Fold these 3 entries.
Entry 1:
Amino acid sequence: MNGLRVVTRTALLFLLALALHGLLSERHVSTGSAPSRVIHVRYDAPADGIEQYRYVPIDVPPATDTLKVSCRYDDGGGETVVQLGLFEPGPLELGGSNFRGYGGNHREPIVIGQTQASLGYRAGPLPSGQWHLLVGLHKVPFDGVALDIEVTTRAGPLPNPGRWYAGGLHLHTVHSDGALTTADLLSRASRAGLDFVAITDHNNTAHAVQSMPTARPLTIVGEEVTTPSGHANVWGLEPGGWIDFRVRADEQDAADKLRRIVSAAHSSGALFSINHPFATCDGCAWRHAIPSDIDAVEIWNGATGPQESAVAFWNRLVESGRRVAAVGTSDFHSPQDDIDRASVRVYADRLSKEAILDGLRAGRVMVMRSAHDMPPLVTASIGAEQGMIGDSLRYRPGDALQIEVLRTRDLNEIWRAELFWNGRLVDSRQLADATVFQRPTEDGYAWIRLTTLSGETIALTNPFYVTKRARD
């Protein structure tokens, strides 16, 4: 109760300060599934010309999953500069622990979610109550400045609280045809912003018996199973583990041998993924029969992609009813290459081998252009039922499917959001901050691709699956 009294007193003091320095008003607007309101404030120029701080109270309701704050004002060609920060409920005293971030004079919206946030802000739970927007009056002309502050909140939380981890799933060291030692590769991956890596040298796991750093990135023991008729990655072996590769597609018992190879990977707790199925290097393209229990397909290999033939290959598997994850990799060999282009984001409740493999197995994966790209928030709902990438949602006749795409940071780069239904492009829109796709429900699956206006892919999600609800 003492903390509540402090917050209340502080809030009243700031409201009085707002009254002294300008006008405060509020109106509600409709933005579809997320309630939004606009707060109008006006401030006079600081009398001494030195930057001063003001605070605008923002009410955040219970069960909020995402908070977005946009601030619009006339900058007069640089004559007006306002800098912003954000505090969650709590005292606004010097050194308080309730500070959530500071973006300065960046004009992009502030977006804070459970697992992602705009640059300069801290993701995490969003406690209900009175938050405060910090308004720094850095440069204000003599006649003052008027601000339109739009606040949007979205209900949640989503199931399985966790976060998106950036990872590289196809990396080579000097133990096969890579140029870097294990230690140098891990150092480079850390600098690139990768949270985890799977080292996948050809047909061996010798890197795993060396002493490796314990700090990030998390290292998952892998192997590129390099057969004469196609390559595959195995992720999650024990140190010293090994998966055989000695099978040709033209052998009489090739299909049986390959099933045994996949079974050996699964028996060790690892996952099996087909690599670059249409690569042109000798022996790289996949010519084997496709085992029924593979876990993933590499649809984006290297800096330029995704490869459309590989996307179509993966889509045919999903269309046939298989839950197979799409992944993207850099296939890193040389220091001249970018270790994170392409990469993945995997949703997991913690950064561990088991949690990352579970996320891959469940299809909670986004294929990303790079580890530096801010992944979008993509959620789906049918009525009151909400889901995230990889989830199954159930419908009744007459229900509508909604897929919401939210940018977590504004950039100069303009994006397009494309909706694919059962593997076919059915809708495409320019994405400023957020958009909601709607379509009638039927059995099928949906995924989202984000591109630049020139067509370069930034992100490609794995599917949401939609099935008819059984009779209650």
Note: The two ends are 45 Å apart (CA to CA).
Entry 2:
Amino acid sequence: MLAVVAVLFQCTMTPKPAPANESPLSALLAQEIFHPAEPQSLEDAGLAETVAESLILKQLAAVGNSTGRNLAEQLCLPLGVLDKILQKLRTRQYVAHRGGAALNDYIYVLTEQGREIAQLMVDACNYRGSAPVPFVDYVTSVDAQTIAAEAPKRAHLEKAFQDISVNPEMFAKLGPAVNSGAGMFLYGTPGNGKTTLAERITRCFGQEIWIPRSIIVDGEIIQFYDPAYHEAVEESTQSILRRDNHDKRWIKIRRPTVVVGGELTMDSLELRHNPQTHVSEAPLQMKSNCGTLLIDDFGRQRMDPLELLNRWIIPLEKHYDFLTLPSGKKIQVPFDQLIIFSTNLEPKDLVDEAFLRRIPYKINVPDPDVEEFHSIFEHCARLLECEYSRSVVDTLLERHYRPKKRSLRRCHPRDLLLQIYHYCVYNGLPVEIKPEYFDLVVDNYFAVVT
């Protein structure tokens, strides 16, 4: 039951898995357009030898000793690519063999000279781990996996929204906006599911893409993969097309939905350089490439809305952005995502006409009518495994909504039923929908709101 409550809190259900009897043709058409092949050399990987040497020495400095295979695993490069570099480092007496390992491998350690060199490299850049992907390869991957190439149809939207309540009029407006891939405003009173709608929109597009764990540009390393926004998925082994092993420096994720709210600052939209580690982190709009970027509660950030919009007025039109490296050099990066502004305020009160023109779809998310309100109540009651009673909900409306001219919100059924659930569990009672239970929880729920 607790698992059910957790699902209800999110107002979502687990999507249905793909049919087990999917046809070979469907599987073929589902193949990804971009697939990073495993490099057979440093040239294939697009890496300078000095970069690979630095990563090996810093990794050995951190762990003390390691087999060649473990080093290859940490750097996400094939052992065959690292073998020649390890031999050169041994010839220059930066590393030494501490002993043998299985499968013609060795245990490597740093020499005294190697430790000195490694420390200098750590001071210059503390990054270690997966070898970075060249920036040009990242740009190629965004072009290949662009969300602009997707054109979701009605069936895609119906599948993505199958387990939440969306009235037909809203669905008719939302569909063309999602199909266009252009930006949109979702506006209306709080509690009507604007954030939920925005998060579901990403599901309408192709499900999975490849992203680099880290990127290198002009010698600067940018950490890109972020578990807070990127949900890793295992590569399917059921493909009818045989694939070579993929480049381990890349990771397959679900198309990202990056959600930011009142905490958004201008600093979040620039490369964030750590002066202690000398490693940079990709900005939010870059992490959302090939996915959706939701600016929630727009207008309530700790900065003027116009400041944020002026920062993005060119990227929204040109589909590229400019970022400044720690060296001061500017680089052009893709700006390739469906950007959604969710706000409780009127868009025209926040931005000027020039910006509204660049966000072509402005969709009002209205309050539900009585029938939809009943439908949401019935759906939430089903999740809580309690019997739904239309007459009891009618009593709720007569006692606590109509006399006070209280507006209906899509979040009310979920929130009120959860309070009833916790009241019943605490008192050891069956979870039921009763008028007296609503009398209790309504006082708690609406006391501060009104």
Note: The chain has three domains: 1-30+367-450, 48-129, 135-364.
Entry 3:
Amino acid sequence: MSGALVLLAIPAWLTSSPTTQTIHRHFTPRDQQVGRYQYVPFDVPAGTTKIVVSYVYDRRGGANVIDLGVYEPGPLDLGTRTIRGWSGGEQSRVTIGIDESSPGYWPGPLPAGSWSVQLGLYKVGADGVHVDVTVETSSEPVSGSARPIARSSAAPIRSGPAWYAGALHAHTNNSDGVLTPQELADKARAEQLDFLAITDHNNTVNQVADLAAPGLLVITGEEATTPGGHFNVWGLGGARDYVDFRILPGDPAIHRIVSDARSRGALVSINHPISACFGCSWTHAVPDGVTAIEISDNGMQSPAAVQMWDMLLRQGRRVTAIATSDWHRGTTPLGAPAVRVWADGLSTAAIFAGIRAGHVVALASSSQPAPLVTARAGAAEAAIGDELRAAAGERVQIDVRGETYSGATVDLFWNGDRIDSTIVGEDGRAVFERFATMPGYYRVHVSRGGSLLAVTNPIYISAERAR
């Protein structure tokens, strides 16, 4: 789907000279802790076609870090849709125009009234920090039409069940990445990925507008970077659609924000839940609406993240594990690590259905095939993400197959504990035999030479406790 905003060009004789206003603010460590987000109001007169916001402050070698965002007139309450963009600390000068804006900011009509510069106090040193904000408004002729804001098509790109490979966490220059959305899509196609979720920090600006990416499913997304941890939201829809990120640790509003995203058809995934990054670890409650969790952080697996995943699984929460590269820049592959999702076709709806069902394998590289895992009890059979019904004490056979994994080590986990290990034979097969004793879940980890290659999502066992 796509849409275009038709604009009337302003005659040159109606344009006015730019108006500049500079506002000075000082923030202390107390402000950073008590009022993480500060708002600096400024006036926009009628007829304005361009706003330029810039700010300067002494970074003190990283002791001070101030993020930037802009809101148009309207409420600033949590969940508001008045945000016009967010660039964090990546840009010291941004432009918002009727027909064109800086990366991370939505173009479109500029309503007259009181706007706000958002200053996110990520870090404030012991001596505090002075911030000078300068706002320039002007009325200039515009091109006549805004760029279309497009969203990915609902039609499948390919039909038929398969293990589709993709990257679910990547950034562009709309936040702190270096590539444009088109360049990122080109990189994904060069790596032969089937799907790509663009997850810029705190915005979804023009992620798929004008993209030329035949054969690649591009999913709109956002990484909401709250002070209590980061989470991805995949599948946001309409123009200027986003999820609010201003949720402080311990705020029960996390439940409402996640529920609202789910009601709009999106999926929510916790990112790098245990991280060395300041403010990146997950300290919120885990809302019922969370579908997935990253078990990777600067590599294929974060042991602490896997522990958190297992804790949720043992509580009966069927949360899907994923691996991502969280790609920003450099020569490293976008799809290392990545996921393969078993889906009925290559469409957003089908990929989402596969993720919800747990039909997902986390892989060190998107070029790897998914190891096939099945569990059997009598005539019953279940695959990754499914449930196997077994009688108490009944024999359960777990079968792992994959010709490319010949000689690799397969570890079998039961309810989060490693209980057995074997080597994949030359026929590409490994078999475990267990007996159903209680409800729980199996999964396998595949490694070679000490390097983890694959982590499967669970096969759940429904069984009465053996007497």
Note: Confidence is low (pLDDT under 50) at residues 1-15.
